[in-house]
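Colleagues,

For the teaching module next term, I've prepared a clean inverse folding example: a structure given as tokens, and then the sequence designed for it. I'd like students to try predicting residues themselves before seeing the answer, so please don't circulate the second half yet.
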């Protein structure tokens, strides 16, 4: 991957596209933990890719491309969250009713159960959990992405596990 990034830094657009294509699922999963709107997800991923392309020359170590890219993505997500905090959306009852009726497949329901439990975590905890367990970043990489101390990341991960366990146990009791 480092060779690909070095080529991209030298102006090879195809190498950049290939690198971004490989990390697209990771970008989507991380953005999904921070944002709920599909439109916002598309916007934030697009803006992150553009920003990464424009600033690729500023990346000093190509080995940190993944961490650098996710950091850009999270910053873009934070910008969208700030913009959206000023807007109040009111959904239609009919649309919500249609969506509820459409969700009948067990796999979709199970995914929704997990997402429901995950969404009970704070943004900080949810982001750390997804970066660590879903995307496979280690605590050092997460600390670099979030610009936090590694000890802070380990603490958040530990607290998030405790909350997830409690939320999951409570969720099973309700069902």
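(Answer key — instructors only)
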């Amino acid at each position: 991957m480092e060779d690909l990034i070095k080529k991209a830094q030298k102006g090879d657009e195809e190498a950049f596209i290939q690198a971004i294509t490989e990390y697209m699922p990771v970008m989507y999963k991380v953005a999904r933990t921070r944002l709920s709107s599909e439109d916002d997800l598309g916007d934030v991923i697009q803006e992150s890719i553009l920003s990464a392309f424009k600033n690729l020359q500023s990346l000093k170590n190509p080995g940190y491309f993944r961490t650098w890219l996710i950091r850009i993505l999270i910053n873009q997500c934070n910008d969208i969250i700030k913009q959206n905090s000023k807007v109040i959306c009111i959904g239609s009852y009919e649309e919500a009713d249609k969506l509820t009726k459409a969700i009948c497949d067990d796999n979709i329901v199970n995914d929704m159960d997990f997402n429901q439990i995950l969404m009970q975590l704070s943004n900080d905890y949810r982001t750390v959990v997804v970066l660590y367990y879903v995307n496979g970043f280690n605590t050092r990489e997460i600390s670099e992405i979030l610009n936090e101390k590694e000890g802070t990341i380990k603490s958040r991960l530990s607290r998030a596990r405790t909350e997830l366990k409690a939320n999951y146990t409570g969720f099973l009791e309700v069902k």
